[in-house]
């Protein structure tokens, strides 16, 4: 990277609002710089931000805007608007979400390093390492160098950066939301491609972070681009539902009376579904007309136990529809969503859906991980926060084991796509992909447990290691190392079985089993295995430098430079330790960083 620290720092000095200025001077300066509040491009952003964080300092936002605007000047979006409208809109989405000043600054600058001559170093000098880390996390890999694999590398890099600071993902989601909103000007093919990618990776990521306010918008905009006529049909339906509002008002009024009579303090309001959710239920149920039940939310002003009191009041008023009650308070969803769900036979015999939750549950249902920033004093406890990011750390766990970014991306996709189950083991809840087996569980409990698992007891009964676990199962794992496991232990620990690969479900377990075989099959190893393992060794060593290789190009060049006849020979040499992997990696990084 070329270091250009002087440039940005110099610009920073020329910005408005300097300390020690007289109020009048400042006012005159601001009048000169921003001819009026209405035309000041940052004022809406500042107002939103200070509406949620009253103590926030607007000066740094203006400084970030000025740099971004200067850097992007002369660049235009496909719509013809000046480029700066995009980072400003992304920052606005983050502000509406209630994110902190640092996130907003990074959002304003998020494309500068990728698309302008502003460098990461200048950014770090001007705004500090935190902002630099966030911007770097959303900066794409160079397509010219990484080619087709750039996308996988970019996602891998973003996830690693998010492991250190989850705000990276929030900026990326806001970035994608604004790009999706403004896709209209692109060709049909590129709209579909971008919408599909959003649906495949970013929406599930958003869902895992629990940020429903963003997810609803992303869902609807994906529907718009993938199925425009369906989007129009559902929108029309929502727009003209005769008597719908009056009916909901009646439901809300009756519910309020019943709650008051039962001495439950609660706010009741209609809870409309978003278009995508109506469409999904319509398709899933095979309905010809849009399928959309009236829905209300009851937000109790008290502890979680009040939710059950509210449930009693609602079920006392209207008969519950059998089989529709779900207690996500006792068993939260994998993104920590908590609420009671029920359907009742409401006025005029129409089915009504009811969501019941506390204030705190409501906040985290809407904002998920972003609630920690929006309500910093609400005392969201550290344990819940850590739990919310547990899956992210699990994903980062396989990152260590994935042979290359493409495999990592594939694992990430399948993890995000799959339904999940929760089982109980070692006295705690463990989240696994649907269809997981005791072997998946054992690896989730620890590599040692996985490598040496021998048998499992599911709900008190012995079961084969290949059994499919079900939601709510209580599982015990026995290993060769359990002193008193009651099983015939063989003399020597034997490790995983090859056939496990046929039934394990989680990418983590797959990778761990492959790793074990890679480590334990050295004698009589074939050349093709040596090539594969040599490559994996380089991959691992690169990863220790937080780098990755998505194409063979740099390796090919290095092989040539080192005088090897071909790439395979170099990889075998690495495997046989003829050349140290660290040495290869040092030279590779040199080669990549000085490619001009
Ligand atoms: Mn962008």
Describe this structure in words.
With 596 residues, this protein is an alpha+beta fold. It has three domains: 5-237, Hypothetical protein af1432; 242-375, Beta Polymerase, domain 2 (2-Layer Sandwich); 390-595, Roll (Ubiquitin-like (UB roll)). The protein has 31 helices and ten strands. The strands form three sheets. Strands 1-2-5-4-3 form a five-stranded mixed β-sheet. Strands 9-8-10 form a three-stranded antiparallel β-sheet. It has a two-stranded antiparallel ribbon with strand order 6-7. β8 and β9 (461-463) form a beta hairpin. The chain is globular and about 85 Å long. The N and C termini lie close together (11 Å). The model is unreliable at 1-21 (pLDDT under 50). The structure holds manganese (II) ion. Manganese (II) ion (MN) binds next to loops.
Describe this protein with a few key phrases.
five-stranded mixed sheet, single chain, 3 domains, binds manganese (II) ion, Ubiquitin-like (UB roll), alpha+beta, 596 residues, TGS-like, RelA/SpoT family protein, 31 helices, disordered N terminus, Beta Polymerase, domain 2, three-stranded antiparallel sheet, HD_domain, TGS, Hypothetical protein af1432
Itemize the secondary structure elements and their pairings:
Elements: H1 5-13, H2 23-33, H3 43-52, H4 58-72, H5 85-97, H6 101-108, H7 112-115, H8 120-127, H9 129-138, H10 143-146, H11 150-164, H12 167-181, H13 188-208, H14 212-226, H15 228-239, H16 244-261, E1 266-270, H17 275-284, E2 295-300, H18 305-317, E3 326-327, E4 340-345, E5 351-358, H19 359-367, H20 371-374, H21 382-388, H22 390-401, H23 405-417, E6 420-425, E7 428-433, H24 438-445, H25 447-451, E8 453-458, E9 461-463, E10 475-479, H26 500-503, H27 507-520, H28 527-544, H29 553-561, H30 567-575, H31 581-593
Parallel strand pairs: 2-5
Antiparallel strand pairs: 1-2, 3-4, 4-5, 6-7, 8-9, 8-10
Helix pairs in contact: 1-8, 3-5, 4-6, 5-6, 5-12, 6-9, 8-9, 9-11, 9-12, 11-22, 11-23, 12-13, 12-14, 13-14, 13-23, 14-15, 15-17, 16-18, 22-27, 24-27, 28-30, 28-31
The protein binds manganese (II) ion (MN).
Residues 86, 110-111, 175 line the site of manganese (II) ion (MN).
